[in-house]
Amino acid sequence: RAKAGVAPGVPSPCISVCEMDEARFACKGCFRTIPEISQWSRMADAEKLAVWQLIEARQASLANGL
User: Fold this and answer.
1) How many CA atoms lie within 13 A of 48 on its CB side?
2) pTM of the model
3) What is the structure's pLDDT at 64?
4) 36: nearest Cα among 3, 9, 20, 2
5) What span, in angstroms and rounded, lies between the C-alpha atoms of 37 and 16?
6) Helix (H, G, I), strand (E, B), or coil: what is residue 26?
7) Could you say which DSSP state residue 31 is in?
8) Which of 22, 29, 40, 61 is the most exposed place for a label (fewest CB within 10 A)?
């Protein structure tokens, strides 16, 4: 049973800014690739957390101008 006030599962990174960055092969809003986006609802929480780590790495490389 889930704790009160705590949402079950891993939240989606989607922020409703759906535009692909063709150079990076990732969405400009959520930083996921098309396969990550299409598989999200079927992923286990561990897989979603792994995608979140990839998102953070993509954001960091963009911030560093890579």
Assistant:
1) 14
2) 0.82
3) 86
4) 20
5) 12
6) strand
7) -
8) 22
Residue 30 tokens, joined:
């959520």
Q: Which residue type occupies 22?
A: E
| Rounded Cα distance, 64 and 50, in Å | 21
Q: Both tokens of residue 23?
A: 């150079």
Map out the domains of the chain as residue ranges. 33-66
Summarize the confidence of residues 42-66 as an average pLDDT: 92
* SS3 of residue 10 by DSSP: coil
SS3 22: coil
Query: For the segment 10-43, what is each residue's pLDDT rounded down to a tens digit?
Result: 999 999 999 999 988 999 999 999 999 999 999 9
* Residue 65 confidence (pLDDT): 78
- Confidence grade of residue 2 (pLDDT, cut at 50, 70, 90): very low
